[in-house]
Amino acid sequence: MCADFCALVTKYKGAIGIKNFDKRKYDNEYAKHNYDRCIFNVPKGQKAVIEEHWRAKGYKSLNSYVNELIRADMAKENTQGKTVNIGRDNKGTINM
User: Fold this and answer.
1) Residue 67 and residue 69: Cα distance in Å, rounded?
2) pLDDT (mean) for 41-59
3) H helices of 17-61, where?
4) Which range, of 13-27, 42-56, 76-90, averages the lowest pLDDT?
5) Which of 12-16, 43-47, 61-65, 92-96 has the lowest average pLDDT?
6) Distance from C-alpha of 71 to C-alpha of 69, rounded to nearest angstrom
7) Is residue 62 within 8 Å of 51, Cβ to Cβ?
């Protein structure tokens, strides 16, 4: 993964020069190459209820809350041979 990251940084630094580095563009490109997006819908009004809930439980973001729920649910299944990487630093890796 570091090789991909380093190549991406080099590409942007070389292409536009370090003085004109566009962090937003870089972050979007990084995310495109390293993450899958999962979008879900909830009934009108539930978003605020869910936000209050994950904040009360001490999570820093909805994303971290959802990832933890998925990790815990998959760990309960205890299925052999599946790996789930959660988070930028892969600290949430599950080898089941």
Assistant:
1) 5
2) 96
3) 23-34, 46-56
4) 76-90
5) 92-96
6) 6
7) yes
